[in-house]
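step=encode ok
step=design start
structure_in=
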């Protein structure tokens, strides 16, 4: 019996998976590109289902190339480029398109928040500028431009948060990702409900916060069957 760890990272142009042993030596690696959609000036989107599909293809590829038994993988963790926005419904299904870090369409939303809430108030809470285009700006754009579709949204997630949801059924974000949402109280280490309500957003849309080293859950049987790993494998935050 051996001990292995598997990590996945989701970038703007593609995703990668690496399998390492207990000494940190890389045994297997896979990379897969996915398309970036720029349908209009300032837009930058991915096909949201690609994240999970790519993860599953790469895990199968790495296991096949290394011959490692899935039951010997002791834990899995994911990361992603930030800010990113994947909007999911109550059944954990994503809207067809996700926002990546290059998207800058929500200029009207930035202007509205600056005028009605105040860039200074946002900065005092988050220690970040509105001009840095945090994820909540795209959430506001989605609500303002597709209100009927937005009614189906149950959670706002990052890319890695979406993949972790598929793995465990739990909607989370780690504390190091939280500042990129644009409504995170940097001192109290929580999403600021007053700021969210001033923007007209339900605080319940925000994911549960966790530390990176927290075990947030285990592979569900459905997730395990799709990606070739073992049900019950721990997933780190």
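sequence_out=
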């Amino acid at each position: 019996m051996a001990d292995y760890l598997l990590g996945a990272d989701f970038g703007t142009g593609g995703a990668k998976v690496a399998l390492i042993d207990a000494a940190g030596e890389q045994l297997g690696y896979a990379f897969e590109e996915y398309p970036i959609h720029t349908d209009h000036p300032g837009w930058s989107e991915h096909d949201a289902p690609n994240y999970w599909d790519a993860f599953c293809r790469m895990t199968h590829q790495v296991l096949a190339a290394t011959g490692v038994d899935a039951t010997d993988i002791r834990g899995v963790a994911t990361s992603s480029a930030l800010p990113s926005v994947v909007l999911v419904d109550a059944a954990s299904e994503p809207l067809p398109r996700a926002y990546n870090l290059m998207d800058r369409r929500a200029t009207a939303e930035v202007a509205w928040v600056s005028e009605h809430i105040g860039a200074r108030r946002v900065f005092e809470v988050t220690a970040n500028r509105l001009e840095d285009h945090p994820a909540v700006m795209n959430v506001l754009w989605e609500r303002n431009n597709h209100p009927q579709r937005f009614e189906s949204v149950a959670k706002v997630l990052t890319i890695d948060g979406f993949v972790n949801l598929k793995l465990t059924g739990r909607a989370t974000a780690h504390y190091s990702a939280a500042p990129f949402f644009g409504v995170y109280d940097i001192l109290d280490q929580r999403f600021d409900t007053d700021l969210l309500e001033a923007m007209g957003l339900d605080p319940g849309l925000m994911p549960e916060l966790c530390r990176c080293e927290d075990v947030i859950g285990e592979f569900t049987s459905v997730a395990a069957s799709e990606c070739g790993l073992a049900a019950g494998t721990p997933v780190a935050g």
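step=design ok
step=annotate ok -> Residues 111 and 137 are 10 Å apart (CA to CA).
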